[in-house]
Amino acid sequence: xxxxxxxxxxxxxxxxxxxxxxxxxxxxxxxxxxxxxxxxxxxxxxxxxx
Length: 50
Description:
Elements: H1 3-27, H2 34-41, H3 45-49
């Protein structure tokens, strides 16, 4: 992992969390998919598991 990637991790994590919270509030956690969250935040689907 590069230094630039490590520096962006907190930012990416925050974007994912904020989007997840917004989607959960709107649709509920049972109807929200990780694919929706990652597409909205423009991150790789695998990064959510990482």
